[in-house]
Predict the structure.
Amino acid sequence: MAGMSPRKSVAESRRTRERIIDRSIAIASVEGLDGLTIGRLATDLGMSKAGVLGHFGTKEALQLASLDGASAIFSRAVWEPSVHTAPGLARLRALCESWITYLERERGAFPGGCFFTTAAVEFDARVGPIRDAVVRRSTLWRRRLANEIRYAADAGELPPDTDPEQLVFELIGLYTGLNQAIQLFADPTAPDRTRRALARLLAPAPGDAR
């Protein structure tokens, strides 16, 4: 019997790795990154422990790969739909709306709610590579928001005395509250409450028609 071609073997290995990461993300969104075990994944995916471990080598490598995978999902759901919107207030509002949709609808990938909120709570008091990776990704997102705010203020779309870092702080707090309202309280009014808060936070500068 002819053996599997190298190209097919690589593609199959990639698909298996993606299956492991997808399942890891789903588990971690509910139980945290420490909830990932090779045995649990092997059972869930119908694989051997060696088969799972062979793709990552260590649990820490699996956790980091799960963070990368979750970051890609977040980017596809929140950033990419807005990338062609004009920078500044229009893009900021589009990002914020996509962010609401992400928290409402990404339940297949993240059944436990926002992956990064869970990871931040789990690792905020620890040290090590996983915490560092969570901080890096969160910092990148905050910088991206701050850049859009700064652009909007410089363009006269937001009041000239807008403090980008302060507004980012308030937006993060708003969306952390939205995640809790959806996950803990199953509050169907939370998205619209968030939109009303955003209308105040992102009110255009006086005289700006936007």
Observations:
- The chain has a mean pLDDT of 91.
- The first helix runs from residue 6 to 31.
- Residues 88 and 151 are 5 Å apart (CA to CA).
